[in-house]
Amino acid sequence: EVQLLESGGGLVQPGGSLRLSCAASGFTFSNYAMTWVRQAPGKGLEWVSAISGGGGSTYYADSVKGRFTISRDNSKNTLYLQVNSLRAEDTALYYCARGFSDFWSGRKIDMWGQGTMVTVSS
Amino acid sequence: SALTQPASVSGSPGQSITISCTGTSSDVGGYNFVSWYQQHPGKAPKLVIYDVSDRPSGVSNRFSGSTSGNTASLTISGLQAEDEADYYCNSYTSSSTLNYVFGTGTKVTVL
């Protein structure tokens, strides 16, 4: 079964850090670019970051650039998002999702995880 | 910035509804890379249209997409109770480092 399973979310104080993980199964992980999309409570979808299949190209939204780092371990079929210097406005459900080829394109995201919640509050 | 969608659209079972997604020539109007996602409460988004009008395998042919100028549209024909959900458009944009931007989202209510 093709599946994406996120973990690592939680409650963190402003300025704190977390490492989100996304374990992939059921497909050749290295053949696909991956992305993180977030959704604040009651709000819309927002692209956060993306990475090519080989990991050599990374992309970030302006709102997280310099604070978040996307990476992947293709030997472990796992995607990561290191989130630092967290702010209240980073509070959201973070989805891991799969692109349609090994280079990044958000044109056809056909597989999504169920998300991991990050809450930034003192 | 986010593409503009109406906050809500409603229709009766069996009717057709259309959701608009308005952008600029730097996104919707400039590229044929518009996609639409359906999201039921508490669930992950699901792709229903990509490349303006293509449907992924398994998606009902009641869903169709089109563009005109800087506006993309998603039409749901033969509206069913299960279509009640939030819908988001997404487009390629030359104005973002991630190259894609979502719409503001539309709540579809089946009366």
Topology:
The complex is a heterodimer of chains A (122) and B (111).
Chain A: E1 3-7, E2 10-12, E3 18-25, E4 34-39, E5 45-51, E6 58-60, E7 68-73, E8 78-83, E9 92-98, E10 111-112, E11 116-120
Chain B: E1 8-11, E2 17-22, E3 34-39, E4 46-49, E5 63-68, E6 71-76, E7 85-92, E8 100-102, E9 106-110
Parallel strand pairs in B: 1-9
Antiparallel strand pairs in B: 2-6, 3-4, 3-7, 5-6, 7-8, 7-9
- Largest sheet descriptor of chain A: 7 strands, mixed
Put simply, the count of helices of chain B is 0
What integer value in Å does the Rg of chain A equal? 13 Å
Low-confidence runs of chain A: none
- Taken as a percent bin, the fraction of beta residues of chain B is 35-45%
Amount of helix of chain A: under 10%
Mean pLDDT of chain B: 96
Number of strands of chain A: 11
User: What is the percent of helical residues of chain B?
Assistant: under 10%
Alpha carbon gap, first and last residue of chain A: 39 Å
Oligomer status: heterodimer
Account of the protein in words:
- Chain A has 122 residues and is mostly beta strands.
- Chain A is 0% helix and 48% strand.
- Chain A is built from no helices and eleven strands.
- In chain A, the strands form two sheets. In chain A, strands 2, 4, 5, 6, 9, 10 and 11 form a seven-stranded mixed sheet that branches. In chain A, strands 1-3-8-7 form a four-stranded antiparallel sheet, with no helix packed on it.
- Chain A is globular.
- The N and C termini of chain A lie far apart (39 Å).
- The model of chain A has no long low-confidence stretch (mean pLDDT 97).
- Chain B has 111 residues and is mostly beta strands.
- Chain B is built from no helices and nine strands.
- Chain B has strands spanning 8-11, 17-22, 34-39, 46-49, 63-68, 71-76, 85-92, 100-102, 106-110.
- In chain B, strands 1, 3, 4, 7, 8 and 9 form a six-stranded mixed sheet that branches.
- In chain B, a hairpin with a 7-residue loop joins strand 7 (85-92) and strand 8.
- The model of chain B has no long low-confidence stretch (mean pLDDT 96).
- Chain A binds chain B through residues 37, 44-47, 49-50, 59-62, 65, 95, 104-110, 112-115, and chain B through 2, 33, 35, 37, 39, 43-47, 50-51, 56, 88, 90, 92, 96-105.
